[in-house]
Each structure stands twice: as structure tokens, then as C-alpha cells.
């Protein structure tokens, strides 16, 4: 296998080139600055000397009297000899003569008193400055010399020299430095590449064999005839490979045993390290949380299983190093109840991880809750009629039996509550039978509209009492294959509820539609409706929206639960749509014939 070493060669060679580039760059930078400083210093010194010589030829009398003709002639002659621009100014900054301007242009020149070099010279010192000349449109070096008479500054002599020649000289030097740097970098690159290839050859051998080690193939060995550090490294890698092969063999045997144990456990097992990263999980955890093992291991716990409650338990164990046990009701990613036992994992006396054992208590707690609720609801439902029966029976036994005006009334009340008890027991037996899943449906083909008409007839008295009307809008010819008696029970319960909870003179509509290969039947009333918070629980056993009114109307709270079980036994679904105060739509689906 050929090792790609271009990247390493480039890095090593580039390091040589980079060092030379940085070193040469610093040298070139400081050399350039030093040359420029020395050149400017020499130019300044030359201008100062020339200014002193010219200053001796300017008499105080001509300057005081502002003899511009004499001064103009003098500066133009001397300017040609020394190749400098010469300007003579009085003590107030007014230009008296300038070698670059004619006598006619002099009066139009601006006052120079605010120029830095003129300001310095006016104070009796030699002024110097480099700035852009708007007159000549180039950078100039200015040297201003004070002209004194009896110790008093009476004028200023300024010499100016363009720096274009200096810049040209510096440009030539910079080009020479650049080409020297380019040549040095090229030479360093060539020599560095050659040296790097010689160094990397034994490294390539170690890389090749190390890759084999990483793939689990320890049959290869590294042979390097060298006594230096690379030779020692090769020997060390060979020994390490042998040790790894032995240790991996031992670990694989232990791991197989451990995996067999974990996968056979009905409890969920999660192992995390000290940074809360998942090390291992078993199949039960995958099943509980509906997740995949291959997508979890190595991830932080909260990334894999987004549950802060379990994470808090892990953090407590990792921090305190103590066993923790608690029961949690989790709402996400699944709604379940777990008994969680968390134990610290120690390594050399330090907490290095956490072992979670998760017992799914959901079904157990659900059954316990259902049993408690069932007992409580049945007890409550039985207590009310039994209390009434007992009370009126005692009243009759205490002498009311001879009361011809009330004894029949009391007996009718006892009969009513007895019928209610009988209906409750019948509904409980029916519901228990349906929930057992052992019921055998007696399926037959029949017309749905005709069956609904028969059910409606049974409610004729109730409808007339409340002045209500039922509209059977089901189409004729809808034939289904179902248990006719059970489906009749569905319609009976739904229509009974619709009549009880509808307003007087209301309307109930029954209609159907085809939906996803099924027939959907809707029973719509104009009743009091169902609050939104109760809709999700309306099909639970003994659940009532208005408990007082439901009992008053003779309901047991089991009708809708019976409806749900009958429909589901036929492979359908039930549901309700309602807005409080605007009626309800109870619907159920049945497979087509």
C-alpha cells in the first residue's frame, strides 16, 4: 500500500521556507528603514550646509527693506547651482523671493507662517519637514534656516529638495532584495523537499504497518535499520502491537460474555462515562425508547435520549459516587413510568461512569391505577342507588308501608334504583366481556339504513317527550358485514346520549361518507356540546362531563366505552368533534363490505 506523504513533505518544506521568509523579511524591512533614514539624514545635513552658505550672501539690509529684485536674482542663480528650490521669507512668513516663481507670481503666494518648518525657524531654530508640495505635486524635504541680525530673527531661508531620486534609489534596492528573497526561497524549497523525502521514507513504513495494526492485523512488523529515535519508535510500536493483540483477545472473550448477559436481561441497561457519553445500551433500551443502538453509542446522553430527569440522576451519581434509586414518570421521548437504579462505576477509586438499570413499570402502574379507578367508580356508582334503596326500605319498614298516599311512590323509587343497578351490572358484564377479547362476532350482511330506522323506533317515546326529530340521511344500499346486534348497541348508545343531552325541539342527524376504504357514520346533535378539555377522555369508563346531570338522566358512564370496544372489535375507530354550546358529532368507522 502506498502512503500519501505529499501533505507531510509540504508541511516540513513549507516550515523551512516560512522560517527563511520571516527571517529575510525582517532583515529586508529593517534594512529598508535604515537606508531610508540614513539617506534622509544625509540630505538634511547637505541642505543645512547649503543653507548656511546661502545665508551669508543675504544681507540684512536687503531683507529688511524687502529688496525682492535682488533677492529674486540671488535665489534663481544659486538654485541652478545647487539644484534646490530656494525661498526667502520675512519674519512674518511673507514670501519675498522663490526660485520656482517669477516676481509677478510672488505677491499671489500664500503666507507661509503656519508651515511647521517656517514656524520652527521663526523661533530661532532650524526647521525641517517632509510633506507634499501642492506647487510641484511631489514629496519634498524642507529645511528652514533663521536669518538673524543682532540676535533677532529678521527672516527665514528655506531650501526644498524633491525626494523622487531617493524613492527611485530605494525602489532599485527593494527589487534587489525581493529577487534575492525569491531565489533563497526557491533554493530552500528544493533542498527542503530533498531532505524531507529522506526523513519521511522510514515514517511511511511505520504509517503503513500502523494502519494494519489499527485494522486489527498484528501480523506485520516494522523493520528499520537505524539506531536513532525512529528505530526506537519502530521497536516500541512492534512491542505495543503484540501487547494489544493479547489484550484484545482477552477483552473480546469478556465482551462476548457481557453482551450475552446484557441482551438477555428484560431490564434496560445504559452505561455512560464520566462525561455523560453513552458507552453501551442493550436491546431493551432500544425497545423502551424506540431508538437505534448504532446511532447512540458515543453521543452525549442528552443528545441521544432527551430527558433531563434521567440526566439529573446520572449527574448526581457521577458527582457523589453513591447508588441512587427512584421512580420517574417520563413524558418524552415516551410516556412511561420507570424504576431507575443508578450505580457509580469506579476506576482506581475515582468515579469513571454510571450504570443505569431501567425497569419499565408502566403496565404495572397502569393496571394498578385502572384497578383503583374501577373499584372507586363501581363503588361510587353502586353506593348511590343502594343508599336510596336502603333508605326507602327502612322508611317503609318503619310504618310508611301503611301510608297509602306515599307507599307506592317509595316502591317506584326503589324499583327505579333497582333497574339502575341492574343496568349498571349489565353494562359492566358487557364491557368486561368486550375487553376480554374473547368475544366471537356473529357477522352477517345487512342494510345499515334499515337497521338505524329500527333503532329510531325504540326512541319514539323519548323523542315525542322532548319534541325532537331524528333525520336518517344514510343512503340506502349501504350494506356492511358486521355483528348486527353489536352495531345496534352502538347506535342505541349514541342516540340515547344525543337525546339526553340535546335541547328540547332539537334535531339529530345521522349520515355517512366513504373515507380511505371505510364507511364513516356520523351522529350529529344540537345539544350542549362537550368542553375541549373533556374530549380526549370522553370514551373512558365511568367518565362523565356533567356527572350530576348524567346520573339524573340514568346514565352509567359506560355507554361510550362499550361503543369504542365494539367498533374496535370490527376493525374501526371512534371519535368526536364538539364545540361547547353548539352540539357534538360522534363518529365511527367500519370496513366496507
Pick out its properties.
Helix Hairpins, disordered N terminus, five-stranded antiparallel sheet, 593 residues, alpha+beta, Beta-Lactamase, 21% strand
Detailed description of the structure:
- With 593 residues, the chain is of the alpha+beta class.
- The protein folds into four domains: 57-162, 2-Layer Sandwich (Beta-Lactamase); 265-360, Beta-Lactamase (2-Layer Sandwich); 365-434, Signal transduction histidine kinase, dimerisation/phosphotransfer (DHp) domain (Helix Hairpins, Orthogonal Bundle), CATH 1.10.287; 440-591, Histidine kinase-like ATPase, C-terminal domain (Heat Shock Protein 90, 2-Layer Sandwich).
- Helices cover 52% and strands 21% of the residues.
- The protein contains 17 helices and 17 strands.
- It has helices at 6-55, 60-64, 68-82, 116-122, 164-214, 229-264, 283-289, 301-304, 308-320, 362-397, 407-435, 448-457, 460-466, 484-500, 532-535, 547-552, 559-569, and strands at 85-90, 95-98, 127-133, 138-149, 152-162, 268-273, 278-281, 324-330, 336-347, 350-360, 443-447, 469-472, 479-483, 507-515, 518-524, 574-578, 584-591.
- It has a five-stranded antiparallel β-sheet, with helices on both faces. It has a five-stranded antiparallel β-sheet with strand order 7-6-10-9-8, with helices on both faces.
- Strand 14 and strand 15 form a beta hairpin.
- It starts with 5 loop residues before the first helix and ends with a strand.
Amino acid at each position: 500500500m502506498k502512503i500519501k506523504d505529499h501533505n507531510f513533505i509540504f508541511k516540513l518544506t513549507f516550515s523551512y521556507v516560512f522560517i527563511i521568509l520571516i527571517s529575510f523579511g525582517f532583515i529586508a524591512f529593517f534594512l529598508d528603514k535604515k537606508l531610508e533614514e540614513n539617506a534622509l539624514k544625509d540630505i538634511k545635513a547637505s541642505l543645512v550646509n547649503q543653507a548656511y552658505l546661502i545665508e551669508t550672501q543675504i544681507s540684512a539690509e536687503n531683507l529688511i527693506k524687502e529688496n525682492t529684485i535682488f533677492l529674486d536674482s540671488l535665489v534663481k542663480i544659486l538654485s541652478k547651482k545647487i539644484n534646490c528650490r530656494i525661498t526667502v521669507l520675512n519674519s512674518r512668513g511673507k514670501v519675498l523671493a522663490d526660485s520656482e516663481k517669477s516676481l509677478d507670481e510672488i505677491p499671489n503666494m500664500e503666507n507661509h507662517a503656519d508651515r511647521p518648518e517656517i514656524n520652527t525657524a521663526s523661533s530661532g531654530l532650524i526647521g525641517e519637514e517632509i510633506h507634499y508640495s501642492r506647487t510641484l505635486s511631489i514629496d519634498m524635504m524642507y529645511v528652514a534656516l533663521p536669518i538673524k541680525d543682532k540676535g533677532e530673527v529678521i527672516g527665514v531661508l528655506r531650501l526644498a529638495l524633491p525626494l523622487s531620486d531617493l524613492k527611485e534609489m530605494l525602489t532599485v534596492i527593494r527589487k534587489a532584495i525581493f529577487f534575492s528573497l525569491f531565489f533563497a526561497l526557491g533554493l530552500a524549497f528544493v533542498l527542503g523537499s530533498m531532505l524531507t523525502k529522506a526523513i519521511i521514507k522510514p515514517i511511511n513504513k511505520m504509517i503503513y504497518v500502523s494502519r494494519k495494526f489499527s485494522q486489527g492485523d498484528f501480523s506485520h512488523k516494522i523493520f528499520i535499520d537505524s539506531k536513532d529515535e525512529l528505530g526506537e519508535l519502530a521497536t516500541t510500536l512492534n512491542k505495543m502491537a503484540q501487547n494489544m493483540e493479547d489484550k484484545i483477545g482477552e477483552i473480546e472473550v469478556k465482551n462476548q460474555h457481557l453482551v450475552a448477559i446484557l441482551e438477555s436481561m428484560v431490564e434496560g441497561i445504559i452505561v455512560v462515562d464520566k462525561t455523560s457519553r453513552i458507552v453501551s445500551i442493550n436491546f431493551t433500551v432500544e425497545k423502551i425508547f424506540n431508538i437505534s443502538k448504532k446511532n447512540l453509542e458515543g453521543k452525549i446522553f442528552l443528545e441521544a435520549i432527551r430527558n433531563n430527569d434521567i440526566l439529573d440522576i446520572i449527574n448526581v451519581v457521577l458527582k457523589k459516587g453513591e447508588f441512587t434509586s427512584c421512580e420517574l414518570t417520563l413524558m418524552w421521548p415516551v410516556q412511561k413510568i420507570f424504576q431507575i437504579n443508578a450505580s457509580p462505576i469506579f476506576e482506581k477509586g475515582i468515579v469513571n461512569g454510571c450504570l443505569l438499570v431501567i425497569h419499565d413499570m408502566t403496565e404495572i402502574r397502569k393496571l394498578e391505577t385502572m384497578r383503583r379507578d374501577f373499584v372507586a367508580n363501581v363503588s361510587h356508582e353502586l353506593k348511590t342507588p343502594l343508599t336510596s334503596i336502603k333508605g326507602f326500605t327502612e322508611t317503609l319498614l318503619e310504618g310508611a308501608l301503611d301510608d297509602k298516599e306515599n307507599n307506592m311512590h317509595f316502591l317506584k323509587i326503589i324499583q327505579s334504583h333497582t333497574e339502575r343497578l341492574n343496568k349498571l351490572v349489565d353494562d359492566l358484564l358487557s364491557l368486561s366481556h368486550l375487553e376480554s377479547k374473547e368475544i366471537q362476532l356473529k357477522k352477517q350482511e345487512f342494510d345499515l339504513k334499515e337497521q338505524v330506522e329500527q333503532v329510531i323506533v325504540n326512541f319514539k317515546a323519548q323523542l315525542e317527550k322532548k319534541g325532537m326529530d331524528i333525520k336518517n340521511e344514510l343512503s340506502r344500499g349501504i350494506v356492511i358485514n358486521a355483528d348486527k346486534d353489536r352495531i345496534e348497541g352502538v347506535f342505541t348508545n349514541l342516540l340515547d346520549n344525543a337525546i339526553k343531552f340535546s335541547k328540547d325541539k332539537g334535531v339529530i342527524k345521522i349520515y355517512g361518507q366513504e373515507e380511505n376504504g371505510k364507511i364513516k357514520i356520523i351522529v350529529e346533535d344540537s345539544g350542549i356540546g362537550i368542553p375541549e378539555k373533556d374530549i380526549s377522555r370522553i370514551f373512558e369508563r365511568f367518565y362523565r362531563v356533567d356527572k350530576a346531570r348524567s346520573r339524573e338522566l340514568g346514565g352509567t358512564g359506560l355507554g361510550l366505552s362499550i361503543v369504542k370496544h365494539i367498533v374496535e372489535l370490527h376493525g374501526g375507530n371512534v371519535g368526536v368533534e364538539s364545540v361547547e354550546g353548539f352540539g357534538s358529532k360522534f363518529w365511527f368507522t367500519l370496513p366496507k363490505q
